[in-house]
Amino acid sequence: MKKRDLRAAFYEAADEFLKDHKVIQMKNFIQHGNVTTYDHVRHVAECSYRMNHRFHLHANDFELIRGAILHDYFLYDWHTFGDGLHGYHHPARALKNAERDFGLSMREKNIISSHMWPLTLRSCPKCREAWIVCLADKICSTYETIRMRKGMA
Predict the structure, then answer these.
(1) In terms of Cα–Cα distance, which of 130, 101, 85 is closest to 17?
(2) Is the pLDDT of residue 97 over 80?
(3) 3-149 adopts what CATH topology?
(4) Local structure of 48: helix, strand or coil
C-alpha cells in the first residue's frame, strides 16, 4: 500500500477515537517542544499503523491504534508536575486514567504500561502491538525532540 493510502486508511480507522472529547483533552498539554501530547500520540499511532502494514506484522489495528493513542493519557503538564521522574511514572498514570475513561483490552493495557520499556524494566511489552508502539514512540519522540532542538517544532 502506498504512503498516501496508508495515511488515509489510518485516519479512517482512527478518526472517531481521535475526536473523542476525552482524548482531545491531551491538546491542553505539551509533550516535546511545542508538540502537544495529542499530536504526539497521533504521530505514534500513525507510525505504529504504518509499521504494522509496511512490514506485514499482522497486529490488531484496532488495539494498536487505541493503545497508541492512550499510551500518554496522563493528563498533566509533566514539565511542571511531579518529582522529575515522569518517564518512570507516567505509564502507570496513563493506564489508570485510560482504565477509568475507556474499556481496555489486555493488549491495550500492555501497550500503555510498557511503552517506556526498557526504562520501566518491570513493564515489558508482551504482545506484538505493544512492541510496535514501544518502538514507534521512541521514533516519534526522537524526531520531535530533534526538531525542537533545531528550532523547527
Answers:
(1) 101
(2) yes
(3) Hypothetical protein af1432 (1.10.3210)
(4) helix
